[in-house]
Amino acid sequence: MLVLSNDTALNSLLFKLLQDYLEQTNSSAPSQVRSPSSNLEIIYVLLMLGLFGFFTVGVMLTNIRARRLEDSCDPYNTYIATDIWHKKDREYFQAKLIENYKLCCVFENQLAVEQPSVQIPEAKSS
């Protein structure tokens, strides 16, 4: 069994595996020697894509599991699923509007009403 002591051994192992794979795929073409950093960039991108995929699948599974746990007899879901509550709310709002309209009244200030026979004094500027 192969035991790796540090990151350099792991990097060299991965680089050698990648180089061997590239040589096998491009056996007809002359093998090109690449720098280890360019090969590590590919591994880094693949690692990031793998982590993103793992995170996305986890979120999807959590969401699916949460939706399955919702019970159809739950009052909250029943309230949202039926439209009867919206109709009752609309009827209540209309009744309140009519009630407020009936309670509405206008007060008239007799002193503020225009009186054509009385002239309003104006301030004289000097």
Describe this structure in words.
The protein is mainly α and 126 residues long. The protein has a domain at 36-73. Helix content is 63%, strand content 0%. It contains 4 helices and no strands. It has helices spanning 7-25, 36-69, 75-81, 84-103. The radius of gyration is 40 Å and the shape is elongated. The model has no long low-confidence stretch (mean pLDDT 76).
Structure summary:
The chain has about 130 residues and is mainly α.
Mean pLDDT: 76
**Main sheet, how many strands, which sense, barrel?**
none
- End-to-end separation: 111 Å
**What kind of assembly state do the chains in view correspond to?**
single chain
How helical, in percent, are the residues? 55-70%
What overall geometry do the principal axes of the alpha carbons give? elongated
What is the CA-atom radius of gyration, in angstroms?
Answer: 40 Å
Q: Kindly state the number of beta strands.
A: 0
Helix-strand string: HHHH
- Tell me the number of helical segments per DSSP (H or I, 4 or more residues long): 4
The low-confidence runs, each spanning 5 or more residues with pLDDT under 50, are none
Q: Structural class, from helix and strand content?
A: mainly alpha
